[in-house]
Amino acid sequence: MAIELRVPTILRTYTGGEKAVNGDGSTLAEFIDNVNGTHPGLKERIVEGEPEELRRFVNVYVNDEDVRFTGGLSTGVKDGDVVVVLPAVAGG
Is the overall model pTM greater than 0.90, yes or no? Predict the structure, then answer.
């Protein structure tokens, strides 16, 4: 098994239109790096800065748990987990 990333429509240009992609890692940061290796540009839409942290207007969940409350990029992930990225959308 692998870890699944569910990709919102706005980021699917980085995944060739795929709604979900798989990757590996033991932390969310490692997983994002792994997925970015096969889908370049995706990481920059989720993570920013030095030290790296989640972008302010991007929500990330691991198995329905908001990672801002479980360790951010240090949150542990394992085979079978589902990571969901929800960028904020503005407009009116």
Answer: yes
